[in-house]
Backbone:
């Protein structure tokens, strides 16, 4: 199928619009939509702005002044229009009310409730449907959504900032700042886009992080802290600042209590803490990580950005619980200190971790590695 430069330009615009929903639409996908008249003029556009609100196609239709312009119009949408009755009426049905010429989509919706049915409905109404324009970009934009649908659990991103020689902190434990201002801004952007940020007990205790979005404008994330033995001091930022209700504490302290009594346990929670506590089993003196991620997913959290030290980072990698690595390498050396990773349980070259789709980009003075496990 041949797409024109004009098609590409409009789909690029639709994808750009879709990205504006980052941080606000999960667990829904980000979707953008551009509508062009028969003459090729943009007559409407929109995107899915917030979870529970209008889908992109509806916002684009609503932005059109004169709906008679929709005769022989072309609709560009970054994801297949939905066909199921969710929180809003199905977009494929809404679009099919008009005598459109073409609907161009970047990718089909992997949600089994849609999965081609939206396109079929459009075709059945005499509208030409073309798919696959800028599909790779569309899949990358919605990698979290696609992963959630496929695996039914949160997508886990591990962020590391290290020196050229592989250290994340000096011998005295100080890690501020290894990466550049630009890199730190990027991390704050991620915090505003992913659902939650996770740290382990040591990081919470030694760095007393806020894990909030401050260097850029954006939505504040949920904050998750692994507090296995429940002994973290209550005056940490995570437990006492104005975003305290966004903090989720994971502990195994009461693991002996039977399943199904968590509501009761939450009521027993000390009154100093207005966040949420979830209970997992203990595994070798630590929280059972796989269970923790599963339970975090049950809270409706679809993506977790891990900003952990080397203990937790290594454990997550060893247990195969990380999906994407974002590793900054700063043009600095320490010659000693805390290594970014401890043992990963690898002894032979045949067990080496080789990343999928590896990519290196420059961010300020740092290099950023992106790869998938
Ligand atoms: Zn829809």
Residues:
């Amino acid at each position: 199928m041949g797409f024109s430069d004009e098609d590409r330009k409009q789909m690029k615009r639709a994808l750009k619009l879709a990205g504006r929903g980052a941080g606000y639409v999960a667990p829904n996908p980000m979707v953008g939509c551009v509508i062009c008249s028969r003459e090729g003029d943009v007559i409407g556009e929109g995107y899915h702005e917030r979870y529970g609100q209008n889908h992109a196609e509806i916002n684009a239709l609503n932005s059109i002044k004169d709906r008679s312009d929709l005769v022989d119009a072309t609709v560009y949408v970054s994801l297949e229009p939905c066909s199921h009755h969710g929180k809003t009426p199905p977009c494929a049905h809404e679009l099919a009310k008009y005598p459109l010429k073409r609907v161009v989509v970047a990718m089909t919706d992997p949600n089994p409730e849609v999965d081609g049915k939206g396109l079929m409905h459009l075709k059945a109404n005499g509208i030409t449907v073309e798919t696959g324009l800028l599909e790779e970009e569309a899949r990358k934009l919605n990698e979290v959504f696609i992963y959630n649908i496929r695996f039914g659990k949160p997508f886990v991103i591990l962020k590391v900032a290290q020196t050229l020689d592989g250290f994340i902190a000096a011998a005295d434990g100080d890690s501020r700042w290894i990466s550049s201002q630009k890199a730190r801004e990027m991390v704050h952007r991620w915090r505003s886009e992913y659902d939650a940020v996770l740290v382990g007990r040591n990081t919470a205790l030694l760095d007393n992080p806020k894990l909030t979005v401050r260097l850029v404008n954006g939505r504040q994330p949920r904050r998750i802290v692994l507090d296995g033995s429940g002994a973290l001091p209550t005056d940490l930022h995570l437990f006492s600042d104005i975003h305290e209700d966004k903090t989720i504490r994971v502990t195994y302290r009461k693991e002996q209590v039977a399943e199904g009594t968590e509501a009761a346990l939450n009521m027993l929670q000390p009154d100093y803490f207005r966040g949420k506590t979830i209970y997992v089993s203990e595994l070798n003196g630590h929280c059972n990580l796989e269970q923790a991620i599963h339970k975090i997913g049950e809270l409706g959290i679809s993506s977790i950005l891990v900003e952990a030290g080397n203990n937790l980072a290594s454990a997550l990698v060893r247990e195969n619980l990380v999906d994407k690595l974002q590793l900054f390498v700063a043009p600095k050396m320490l010659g000693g200190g805390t290594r970014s990773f401890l043992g990963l349980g690898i002894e032979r070259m045949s067990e080496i971790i080789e990343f999928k789709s590896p990519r290196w980009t420059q961010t300020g003075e740092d290099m950023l590695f992106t790869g998938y496990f």
About this structure: The chain has twelve helices and 18 strands. The CA atoms of residues 329 and 367 lie 5 Å apart.
